[in-house]
Input
Amino acid sequence: MPELPEVETIKLQLDQTLKGRKITKIEVLSRKNFFGQIDEVIGRKVEGVERRAKIILVKLSGEKCLAVHLKLTGQLIYHSADDKVLNYLEKENGPFSVKQLPNKFTTVIVFFDNSGKLYFNDLRKFGWMKVVDCKEGECNLPELKKFGPEAIDEKTLTLTYLKRILAKSKKPVKLVILDQEKLAGVGNIYANEALFMAGIMPTRPANSLIDKEIENLRDSILKVLRDSIAHKGTSDKDEAYRQISGEKGDFQNYLRVYRKDKEKCPRCGNVIKKIKVGGRGTFYCSKCQK
DNA sequence: ACCTAAACCTGGGCGC
DNA sequence: TGCGCCCAGGTTTAGG
Output
């Protein structure tokens, strides 16, 4: 699933929904996806929900935090006590139903003092939830220390910085912008989309880009991430990303090259091609991207 | 330091 | 219908 726009959408919705609520119970249905002591968070109040790269941080009173990584197929679905919020979910039957939870993919359930429940579902079970110490706002999570600047933030993704990391590498430019230690938050969908928008071939050696191309790439990364958040993220398949209500995002309707191989380029009509770059599916238009 | 493949899992889709 | 294969939004690790 989830790249920066999807995780950001979930973060914003959880912050609004959970702030001020107390955790009353946690049920762990899949031990391998939960780390830390449940006791340490029972009775604690949600102070806010934050995001760093693709990790969600539920900040709790008493200097604790619930950290969540959704990997490819993780979902966080909230059911309020009266379940009114689910009324607009039509045709939600079958194995991936988020109307009837828990389902066979539910790994953790967090219960709140207003009878609300947060379901962590994960078909492929790669995702995790961890209880971590969070002293003075700093979460004690090793993963957080290695991330590069946030790809959505024009103050941290500066032109100077992007020029610097690209100049240092002769790897394909797509792999550099996918590297979370260099740039945090871009995943395979938005790497493909940003490179199309910027007119740059994904395989180009990073250090071969000229200044004008790097400016275009920076603008494209910032724009595609913002646009996707405005559309509540990309829901490609039934079993993966959803908003916390269970609704799909909408940005799959605006993708221009990702998984569009054999279709026509929306810009020039040429056929979109698919190759592998670093083992990942890579989609491009050979006329529009140089 | 580079690159690839495999690993973690489960299901969908396609060709035969 | 069914089997075998490849594919999948992420990340880490092993091997060359």
